[in-house]
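Suppose you are handed only these lines of text.
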Amino acid sequence: MPLGLSMLFCLNEPFAALIERLGKVEVEHVEIVDEGVHALNGRRVSLLKKAIEARDLSLTVHAPFADINIASTSPLIRRAIIRRLKRSIILSAQLNPKYWVFHPGIQSAVSDEYPGLDWRINLESVRDLLKVARQHGLEISIENVPDPFPFLLKRSNDFEKFYKDLGEDGLNLSLTLDVGHSNINKQTYDFLEKFSGRIVHAHLHDNLGDYDSHLGIGFGNIDWLRLMKAFKKINYDGILLVESKKNIEESLEMLKNLVKKV
Ligand SMILES: [Mn+2]
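From them, the structure of the protein bound to manganese (II) ion can be written out as follows.
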């Protein structure tokens, strides 16, 4: 189980600093975040390409997530959101990543008035994204997200219903298990049991079970040894990607030792 690092922790630094960091990371895989001052454009894609090739890094891209709700019940706003995500898919495809990871939609403020509408729009948007991704030869992967945000897909049974409703279209849609998020919803082991064949990528960060604090590995209440054993048990062969915002070096060190133990 190779280790990776999300560049989320330096999203507050200029793009040039990201490139500099890519020259020094001590992992074989990185996740680029298409957001904020690191948002992809043509120039940045070519700079990233150079940096990644120089280090022979493998790559994933995290889709934009700020102000993004693929289940928006406003047609005009949804159109803008899908446009933003399509741009991300097209630019990401040039980097040839293993996956493009995105978040599910968020419940609408008019959910009570139109029950099920946001759920249907979420499905429709996922189908749109799958189609664009296929056209550009990109594999996309959906991530579980936590409380207290009103996301449509948080618990393992939400995902069961989601994949059932998606039907055949869902065969090409893998799951990225975010263990920090699932820790908040106490769902980690349900996901690992029910979706062992779907989980292809994992986001690792810690918290105290209270909120999505993205702490360093070992700085919250997750039992990491138990978790690594569970990944091993399902023969997980994806990347163990550190997505902490602090204590990056300690997190990688801790994970390296854990992987040796299992
Ligand atoms: Mn995540």
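What can we learn from it? The CA atoms of residues 29 and 155 lie 28 Å apart. The two ends are 10 Å apart (CA to CA).
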